[in-house]
TrEMBL record:
The name this protein goes by in its record: Riboflavin synthase
Region (Disordered): 194-215
SUPFAM superfamilies, sorted: Riboflavin synthase domain-like
InterPro entries, per the entry: ATP_synth_asu-like_sf (IPR023366), Lumazine-bd (IPR001783), Lumazine-bd_dom (IPR026017), Riboflavin_synthase-like_b-brl (IPR017938)
Main function: Catalyzes the dismutation of two molecules of 6,7-dimethyl-8-ribityllumazine, resulting in the formation of riboflavin and 5-amino-6-(D-ribitylamino)uracil.
A Pfam entry, by short name: Lum_binding
UniProt keywords, alphabetically: Repeat, Riboflavin biosynthesis, Transferase
Pathway this chain belongs to: Cofactor biosynthesis; riboflavin biosynthesis; riboflavin from 2-hydroxy-3-oxobutyl phosphate and 5-amino-6-(D-ribitylamino)uracil: step 2/2
Organism: Saccharopolyspora spinosa
EC number assigned by the record: 2.5.1.9
Amino acid sequence: MFTGIVEELGTIEAVEPLADGSRLTIAGPVVTEDAKHGDSIAVNGVCLTVVTVGDGRFTVDVVAETLRRSSMERIAPGDRVNLERAMALGDRLGGHIVQGHVDGTAVLRGTDADGLTRFELPQRLSRYLVEKGSITVDGVSLTVVEAGETGFSIALIPTTKELTTLGRRQPGDEVNIEVDVLAKHLERLAAAQLAHQEHGAQARSGDNGGVREAR
């Protein structure tokens, strides 16, 4: 579990192809201070498991499903990445509840005259966004300013631009998106309840109200 508060900008040092994914070597002196094999570190919002660690760098394996669903498939040596260690019990929740389970990607469209940064997002994900709700962009916890059917906008403060990859992104760049997990759970529960009610209504209409037909 993470909070979406980036601890440092790391650097991709190597990308090694594997049979079912790839192995990344990442330089990150802050997040490796107390890291060990098996720990979780969010890399651009993707929760990954530490394989090896030492000398201020660590390696992680990225499986095919993660490559398909996120921007990790296009990552290359020299790229900067947002890094955050998993939160510990008792830590302050400075952002919001972030799982590190990327739902998909969005495309940066630019900054408008009001200073809002706009992203294009698939409709299958945009339905989970609400004005002033939370969203995770490349591992950064942010507040939605405007939520539309095909995109959303956020307001980036100078500190976020300076300390994360979002200050380096250009129009057309792809970013990882994780929507609020509570919204997804509520949708599933509501769908099950509506289906149950519909089934009950059909059953009641099919028994003719309990009245026998005349013969």
